[in-house]
Design brief:
The protein is α/β, with parallel strands linked by helices and about 525 residues long. The protein has two domains: about 150 residues, 3-Layer(aba) Sandwich (Rossmann fold), CATH 3.40.50; about 350 residues, L-fucose/L-arabinose isomerase, C-terminal (L-fucose Isomerase, Chain A, domain 3). About 35% of the residues lie in helices and about 20% in strands. The chain has a six-stranded antiparallel beta barrel with strand order 11-12-16-15-14-17, surrounded by four helices. Helix 3 links the parallel strand 3 and strand 4. Helix 8 packs across helix 10 and helix 10 packs across helix 11. The radius of gyration is 23 Å and the shape is globular. The N and C termini lie far apart (about 50 Å). About 55% of the residues are buried.
Length: about 525
C-alpha cells in the first residue's frame, strides 16, 4: 500500500471502563501492528496514548472528530477492538473516509471486542459504508493472516456466507402462512407502540430503526424520557417496592447482598430497582405501549440503580403484580416485552415474537443476548462449537434452569454501573430455540432467522466461561444449526441476537417459518440462516 496503514482504537465514554480495559486493547493493537509489519507494510497509530486519562481510546464524538482531522482521507484504516465501543465516536469519520476500512476484533470474551466490532459493523452496514472485517485469538493464524494479506493488497475480504438463504427459496407450511398473514394485517390495521425511553444507547446507531422504515410495519414509537421514568419512581411508595421484593423472595430468587454500596448489592439498591419496575409498568400502561426499552446508559446510571432487574421481570409472564391507582392489575398474565439498551430492532422482533408465540400456544418469554464469545467444547477440540450468549444483566426467569429458584441477583460491575443494582443471573435451560436479528442495511429493513439448541455444559465449564466473560450476567450455551463460527461473524449485523424457546424441534421449526413469513408480510427482506434446521 502506498500510504502507511493507520490504526485507531474506539472505546467507551466511561473513564473507568477505558482505564480498566486499556491493557487488553494495547496488547491486541501491538499484535495487529506486528502482523501488518510482517507483511512488509508501514503502520502507525492514528492518535496518541493520553497519560492524563491513562488510556489511548477515542472516548467521545468530539475526540473522534479531532482524530479524523489528522488522518489522511485516503489512508488504509484499521479499527482494532478488544473492548466494547461507542460507534458514534468514529462513525462520522468513517462515513467520509475514502481509503479502505478494516475492522478487527480479538477473539476473547473479556471486555469484549467481539461485541464491540459486531456493533460497529452493524452501524457501518446501516450507514452504507464499505468495510472488511477480521477476528483472531492471537493474530497469527492463517485465517487472519491470509485475510489481512488480501486487504493489504487492496482487495475487500470475502467471507463464506453460503449459510444465508432468501426466504423465497422455501415453501412454508400453510399454517405458518395463515398465522403470519393474520398478524401482519392486524398490525397494519390496529397498530402497535414501542415505548422508547431515550434513543441511541451507547452509540448503537444500528439499534435505531428510522421511522420511515418502521411505520409501514404498523409499529410506531412513543418517545419517552428517562427523566420522566425517574420522576415516576419517586412516586412509588416503599411499601409497594417491598411487596415486589417479598414476591421474588417467595419464589426462591436469591439476592447476594452486602453493606458497601460501592462494591456490593444492597437492599436499598434492590428497592430502587423494584420502584423502577413499578414505575415503568405504569408508564407503559398510560401510553398504551406494547413493548418498552430503557436506555439506562447514559443518564439513569448517574441517578439510580441498574434497570436490569426490572427488565428481566417485564419479559416474564409470571412476575410481581403491579396495580394502577384504581387497583387494576396491569398487563395481567402477560409479558411486557422489553428491549434491552433500547435496541429498537430487538424491540420490533420481541413484539412480533410475543404475539406469534402466544398464538402458537408457546411460552412467549423472549430476550436479546450479546453474541459474546464461543469455543469448541469436547474432547481434543472435536466437539461442537458452543456460543456464549450473555445479556448485560437480566433474562426472563422462565429461560433459566429452575426459573426463579435458579435465578441469582448479583451487583452489576462498578466499572460500568457506579450506583449498583442487581441482575437476573442464571443458566439458560436446555432446549430448542429460534434466533433472529432485525437490522437495517442500506435503507432496507431486513431480518435473519435461524435455529439453534441450548445445551447444558458441566458446571465447571460454565463457571470457566463466566470467569472469562462477565460472571454477574446470565449465560446461554447455544449451538447454531448449520452455521460455523466464522459464518456467524461474517453475516451477523449486530452485537445482539434475539432468542425464544419452543417446546420441541417440530414446534421450533413451525415458529421459525411463522415468524419468517410474518416479517415478510410486514415488508421486511427475510433470510433463513443455516442448513440443518429442518425447516421443511
Amino acid at each position: 500500500m502506498p500510504e502507511p496503514v493507520v490504526v485507531i482504537a474506539n472505546g467507551d465514554l466511561r473513564l473507568a471502563a477505558n482505564q480498566k480495559c486499556w491493557p487488553a486493547q494495547s496488547r491486541a493493537e501491538e499484535a495487529v501492528m506486528d502482523a501488518i509489519r510482517g507483511e512488509g507494510c508501514e503502520v502507525k497509530r492514528g492518535h496518541p496514548y493520553d497519560p492524563a486519562k491513562q488510556h489511548g481510546f477515542i472516548d467521545s464524538q468530539k475526540r473522534g472528530m479531532e482524530v479524523f482531522r489528522e488522518i489522511p482521507p485516503a489512508a488504509p484504516l484499521v479499527v482494532v477492538e478488544a473492548v466494547w465501543q461507542y460507534s458514534h465516536h468514529l462513525l462520522h469519520g468513517l462515513y467520509t473516509h475514502r481509503g479502505p476500512i478494516l475492522t478487527i476484533a480479538n477473539w476473547s470474551g473479556e471486555w469484549p471486542g467481539l461485541v464491540g466490532m459486531l456493533n460497529l459493523n452493524g452501524s457501518l452496514t446501516k450507514a452504507g459504508v464499505k468495510y472488511s472485517s477480521l477476528w483472531s485469538v492471537d493474530f497469527r493464524d492463517e485465517f487472519f493472516l491470509s485475510g489481512l494479506r488480501e486487504w493489504l493488497a487492496g482487495k475487500p475480504i470475502e467471507h463464506d456466507t453460503s449459510h444465508v438463504h432468501p426466504l423465497r427459496d422455501f415453501k412454508l407450511p400453510a399454517r405458518a402462512e395463515k398465522i403470519a398473514g393474520t398478524l401482519a394485517a392486524g398490525l397494519r390495521r390496529s397498530k402497535a407502540i414501542l415505548g422508547v425511553f431515550d434513543e441511541g444507547c451507547m452509540g448503537m446507531y444500528n439499534a435505531i430503526i428510522p421511522d420511515e422504515l418502521l411505520h409501514p410495519t404498523g409499529v410506531f414509537k412513543e418517545r419517552l424520557s428517562q427523566s420522566a421514568l425517574y420522576a415516576a419512581m419517586q412516586c412509588v411508595s416503599e411499601e409497594e417496592a417491598h411487596h415486589v421484593r417479598l414476591w421474588l423472595d417467595a419464589r426462591g430468587m436469591q439476592f447476594h447482598t452486602g453493606v458497601d454500596p460501592e462494591t456490593e448489592l444492597t437492599d436499598a439498591q434492590i428497592l430502587e430497582q423494584c420502584k423502577m419496575y413499578i414505575a415503568a409498568m405504569r408508564i407503559a400502561d398510560e401510553f398504551g405501549c406494547d413493548a418498552i426499552g430503557i436506555q439506562y446508559q447514559q443518564g439513569l446510571k448517574d441517578l439510580t440503580a441498574a434497570s436490569d432487574l426490572a427488565e428481566g421481570l417485564f419479559n416474564n409472564v409470571d412476575r410481581p403484580p403491579v396495580r394502577d391507582a384504581r387497583g387494576r392489575v396491569l398487563f395481567e398474565n402477560q409479558a411486557l416485552p422489553h428491549f434491552n439498551e433500547v435496541d429498537e430492532c430487538a424491540g420490533l422482533d420481541a413484539l412480533v415474537t410475543n404475539r406469534l408465540w402466544n398464538h402458537l400456544g408457546f411460552d412467549p418469554e423472549t430476550t436479546l443476548h450479546d453474541v459474546r464469545y464461543g469455543e469448541t467444547y469436547g474432547a481434543n477440540g472435536k466437539g461442537e462449537f458452543v456460543w456464549v450468549f450473555e445479556i448485560s444483566g437480566a433474562v426472563p426467569p422462565k429461560h433459566l434452569i429452575g426459573e426463579y429458584a435458579g435465578a441469582v441477583s448479583e451487583r452489576q460491575p462498578p466499572m460500568y454501573f457506579r450506583l449498583g443494582g442487581g441482575t437476573v443471573k442464571g443458566i439458560s435451560k436446555p432446549g430448542e430455540i429460534v434466533w433472529s436479528r432485525v437490522f437495517v442495511d442500506h435503507g432496507t429493513l431486513k431480518a435473519d432467522l435461524g435455529r439453534a439448541k441450548v445445551v447444558e455444559l458441566p458446571r465447571e465449564e460454565t463457571d470457566r466461561r463466566w470467569r472469562i466473560t462477565t460472571p454477574q450476567w446470565p449465560i446461554m450455551h447455544a449451538v447454531t444449526y448449520g452455521i460455523t463460527r466464522d459464518q456467524m461473524m461474517a453475516r451477523h449485523k449486530s452485537n445482539h441476537i434475539q432468542v425464544a424457546y419452543a417446546p420441541d424441534a417440530v414446534g421450533a421449526n413451525l415458529a421459525l417459518a411463522t415468524k419468517a413469513a410474518a416479517f415478510r408480510e410486514m415488508g421486511l427482506e427475510v433470510s433463513i440462516c443455516g442448513t440443518e434446521h429442518g425447516l421443511l
